[in-house]
């Protein structure tokens, strides 16, 4: 508890700085009331970094990100930067962070808060109490495999991508998922298409081997990803942790997101290998983007960013109780009816501002 946690905050563009200001209040509360010490530094990423330095992520900020226990990012991008050259686009700043920190495990929780169960794309009865975690492999697979490109073959062109996974790439994301399952309900479902893909056959074999040798206590099941998609919208509560590859994870985590309602509620974490102090390289960020349509108006929902900080408490700082308490505070203010504009149902009501929502959560 006397340990100090180093945190680099990168608010970014659009609503990023607005939602991050609310996280700052939460951090201050934990410092004042729980004796935690955060060594917080702040930097630029995305369009604002381009405006200041002509690059979406400076080498100095990159080096800082490598050195801290956790990076918390708001959002990057906006219409102002749409016509920039590809090499300096705001999103390149985020991609550089992910790549250089080698963040191979992307964690996307889908949790249904009871007060918002009617926002789900499914019936309340199907999603009430939903709490699943999708772990997506983030640095390999078909998005990166070679050969890739558009080639000429005879008298026509052919577009080629290659799904490629090495045993070690599969094993490391599997280990990350088993570790998480162990701390949750102890169940892991691995999804691939071993029926039609060689990489899927290897995926299944390696995940099973890691299970048998290192995590026999975790209950492991395998599912074809197409069936997984079906099960996710039929009976999502059957899952605890799901581990899958880059492409399937991209699709399945977006589908799972819609089980919970608003984009303004969804946190994420991207984890890499453990550093010398045992803490993994880690980047936390809300799933939503910079929302230029509402930026600067005090309308943004800060909960996705606040819940991303809760994930940092849990996965980087080992403060599971603090993370639980923060999530409980969010649940409480929602149950009391506090709503930002994105959470207004058809019944209407008066939305509260970004800052009022942050204050309510801190008070709770
Ligand atoms: P990106 O390309 O960065 O993912 P995007 O345009 O796909 O961006 P967002 O920027 O996330 O998506 O915005 C999508 C919609 O959701 C917008 O109408 C935006 O206002 C809304 N939205 C996103 N985040 C929030 C939030 N935290 N609170 C309220 N509304 C939000
Ligand atoms: Mg988007």
Automatic annotation (TrEMBL):
<keyword id="KW-0560">Oxidoreductase</keyword>
<dbReference type="GO" id="GO:0051287">
    <property type="term" value="F:NAD binding"/>
</dbReference>
<feature type="binding site">
    <location>
        <position position="98"/>
    </location>
    <ligand>
        <name>substrate</name>
    </ligand>
</feature>
<keyword id="KW-0432">Leucine biosynthesis</keyword>
<feature type="domain" description="Isopropylmalate dehydrogenase-like">
    <location>
        <begin position="6"/>
        <end position="361"/>
    </location>
</feature>
<dbReference type="GO" id="GO:0000287">
    <property type="term" value="F:magnesium ion binding"/>
</dbReference>
<feature type="binding site">
    <location>
        <begin position="289"/>
        <end position="301"/>
    </location>
    <ligand>
        <name>NAD(+)</name>
    </ligand>
</feature>
<feature type="binding site">
    <location>
        <position position="226"/>
    </location>
    <ligand>
        <name>substrate</name>
    </ligand>
</feature>
<feature type="binding site">
    <location>
        <position position="226"/>
    </location>
    <ligand>
        <name>Mg(2+)</name>
    </ligand>
</feature>
<dbReference type="InterPro" id="IPR004429">
    <property type="entry name" value="Isopropylmalate_DH"/>
</dbReference>
<keyword id="KW-0520">NAD</keyword>
<dbReference type="Pfam" id="PF00180">
    <property type="entry name" value="Iso_dh"/>
</dbReference>
<feature type="binding site">
    <location>
        <position position="108"/>
    </location>
    <ligand>
        <name>substrate</name>
    </ligand>
</feature>
<feature type="binding site">
    <location>
        <position position="136"/>
    </location>
    <ligand>
        <name>substrate</name>
    </ligand>
</feature>
<keyword id="KW-0464">Manganese</keyword>
<protein>
    <recommendedName>
        <fullName>3-isopropylmalate dehydrogenase</fullName>
        <ecNumber>1.1.1.85</ecNumber>
    </recommendedName>
</protein>
<dbReference type="GO" id="GO:0005829">
    <property type="term" value="C:cytosol"/>
</dbReference>
<dbReference type="InterPro" id="IPR019818">
    <property type="entry name" value="IsoCit/isopropylmalate_DH_CS"/>
</dbReference>
<dbReference type="GO" id="GO:0009098">
    <property type="term" value="P:L-leucine biosynthetic process"/>
</dbReference>
<feature type="binding site">
    <location>
        <begin position="78"/>
        <end position="91"/>
    </location>
    <ligand>
        <name>NAD(+)</name>
    </ligand>
</feature>
<keyword id="KW-0460">Magnesium</keyword>
<comment type="similarity">
    <text>Belongs to the isocitrate and isopropylmalate dehydrogenases family. LeuB type 1 subfamily.</text>
</comment>
<dbReference type="InterPro" id="IPR024084">
    <property type="entry name" value="IsoPropMal-DH-like_dom"/>
</dbReference>
<feature type="site" description="Important for catalysis">
    <location>
        <position position="143"/>
    </location>
</feature>
<keyword id="KW-0963">Cytoplasm</keyword>
<keyword id="KW-0100">Branched-chain amino acid biosynthesis</keyword>
<keyword id="KW-0028">Amino-acid biosynthesis</keyword>
<comment type="pathway">
    <text>Amino-acid biosynthesis; L-leucine biosynthesis; L-leucine from 3-methyl-2-oxobutanoate: step 3/4.</text>
</comment>
<dbReference type="GO" id="GO:0003862">
    <property type="term" value="F:3-isopropylmalate dehydrogenase activity"/>
</dbReference>
<keyword id="KW-0479">Metal-binding</keyword>
<comment type="function">
    <text>Catalyzes the oxidation of 3-carboxy-2-hydroxy-4-methylpentanoate (3-isopropylmalate) to 3-carboxy-4-methyl-2-oxopentanoate. The product decarboxylates to 4-methyl-2 oxopentanoate.</text>
</comment>
<feature type="site" description="Important for catalysis">
    <location>
        <position position="193"/>
    </location>
</feature>
<comment type="subunit">
    <text>Homodimer.</text>
</comment>
<feature type="binding site">
    <location>
        <position position="250"/>
    </location>
    <ligand>
        <name>Mg(2+)</name>
    </ligand>
</feature>
<feature type="binding site">
    <location>
        <position position="254"/>
    </location>
    <ligand>
        <name>Mg(2+)</name>
    </ligand>
</feature>
């Amino acid at each position: 508890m006397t340990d100090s946690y180093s945190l680099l905050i990168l608010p970014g563009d659009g609503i990023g700085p607005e939602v991050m200001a609310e996280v700052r209040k939460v951090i201050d509360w934990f410092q004042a009331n729980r004796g935690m010490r955060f060594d917080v530094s702040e930097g630029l990423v995305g369009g604002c970094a381009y405006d200041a330095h002509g690059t979406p992520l400076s080498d100095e900020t990159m080096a800082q990100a490598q050195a801290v226990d956790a990076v918390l990012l708001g959002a990057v991008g906006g219409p102002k930067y749409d016509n920039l050259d590809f090499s300096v686009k705001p999103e390149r700043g985020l991609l550089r962070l992910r790549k250089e920190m080698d963040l191979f495990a992307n964690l996307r929780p889908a949790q249904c808060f009871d007060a918002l169960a009617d926002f789900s794309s499914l019936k309340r009865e199907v999603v009430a109490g939903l709490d699943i975690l999708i772990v997506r492999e983030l640095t390999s697979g078909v998005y990166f495999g070679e050969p890739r490109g558009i080639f000429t073959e005879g008298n026509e062109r052919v577009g080629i991508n290659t799904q490629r996974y090495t045993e070690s790439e599969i094993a490391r994301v599997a280990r990350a998922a088993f570790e998480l399952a162990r701390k949750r309900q102890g169940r892991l479902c691995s999804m691939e298409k071993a029926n039609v893909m060689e990489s899927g056959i290897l995926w299944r074999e390696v995940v099973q081997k890691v299970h048998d040798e290192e995590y026999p206590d975790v209950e492991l099941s395998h599912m074809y990803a197409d069936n997984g998609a079906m099960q996710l919208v039929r009976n999502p509560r059957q899952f605890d942790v799901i581990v899958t590859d880059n492409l399937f994870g991209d699709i399945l985590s977006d589908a799972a997101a819609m089980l919970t309602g608003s984009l303004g509620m969804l946190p994420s974490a991207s984890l890499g290998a453990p550093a010398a102090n045992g803490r993994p390289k880690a980047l936390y960020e809300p799933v939503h983007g910079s929302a230029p349509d509402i930026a600067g108006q005090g309308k943004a929902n800060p909960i996705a960013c606040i819940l991303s900080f809760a994930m940092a408490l849990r996965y980087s700082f080992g403060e599971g109780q603090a993370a639980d308490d923060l999530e409980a505070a969010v649940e409480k203010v929602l149950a009391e009816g506090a709503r930002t504009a994105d959470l207004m149902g058809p019944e209407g009501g008066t939305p509260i501002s970004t800052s009022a929502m942050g204050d309510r959560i801190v008070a709770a």
